[in-house]
Design a protein that fits this description.
With 222 residues, the chain is mostly beta strands. Helices cover 9% and strands 45% of the residues. It has a five-stranded mixed beta barrel with strand order 1-2-3-5-4. Strands 9, 10, 11, 12 and 13 form a five-stranded antiparallel sheet that branches. A hairpin with a 5-residue loop joins β2 and β3 (29-33). It is globular. The N and C termini lie far apart (38 Å).
């Protein structure tokens, strides 16, 4: 099957790419995955390359050939891409048009609670109809926290959402990480309202929890 998808996340994952977006007509979620178990089903650079030779970017509208739905116990939005079928770029979406097609989430919490992680057993016990691992939100405010260590640079954002304060959630958005490359370690209030795609990562085997992360950040230019 072929779908036209607005990409809302092209983020880092195990040295490859985690890509997700919504159907340009229905607003349905799609997380695009490969069959590469070694990278936890992330997509390679070749797989996200457009027919023009460029790499896919956030807010691109792309025509993608999908093989089949590939849900897991905590990710009901997964679809396996057809290999060897370059994506075709049809245009670019605006933040306002994304909000019209898929209005920001109005749930009281970011993925069920105010914690930064979810127990595996919680997902395993939930009805399939209630499970979600992708969420589009408009936070009330955000503070970017940049930390440097021997292990490299870590970028996270402390979000305020629905009058709840959240622990800093890690950012995997490649474009946003690049924007922070020249900044010194510290905290920086976000100056412009943003539309954010939040995701739930793979289960961390050491504590049997899934961690929340910020996979896509779309900032207004004014």
């Amino acid at each position: 099957m072929t779908k036209e998808i607005i990409l809302l996340a092209v983020s880092k994952k195990y040295g490859k790419y985690c890509v997700a977006g919504v159907d340009r007509y229905t607003g349905q979620w799609y997380r695009l995955i490969s069959n590469d178990t070694g990278s936890h089903y992330a997509l390679s650079e070749q797989e996200i390359r457009l027919s023009t030779g460029e790499l896919s970017q956030k807010l691109d509208i792309v025509k993608v050939k999908l093989w089949d739905k590939a849900i897991s116990y905590f990710q009901t939005e997964n679809y396996l891409i057809s290999r060897g079928c370059p994506w075709e770029k049809l245009g670019e979406a605006s933040i306002d048009s994304v909000k019209e097609i898929h209005p920001p989430n109005q749930a009281d919490y970011i993925f069920y609670n105010t914690c930064r992680k979810l127990a595996k057993e919680q997902y395993m016990s939930m009805p399939v109809s209630e499970i979600q691992s992708l969420m589009l939100i408009c936070p009330q405010k955000g503070i970017v926290r940049i930390q440097d260590s021997d292990k490299g640079r870590h970028i996270a954002i402390k979000l305020s959402y629905k009058d709840h304060e959240y622990e800093p959630l890690p950012v995997t958005d490649l474009e946003f990480i690049q924007l922070c490359a020249t900044l010194k370690a510290g905290e920086y209030p976000m100056q412009r309202p943003s539309l954010m795609l939040l995701s739930v990562g793979e289960c961390y085997e050491k504590d049997d929890h899934h961690y929340k992360l910020i996979a896509g950040i779309m900032q207004n230019s004014h």
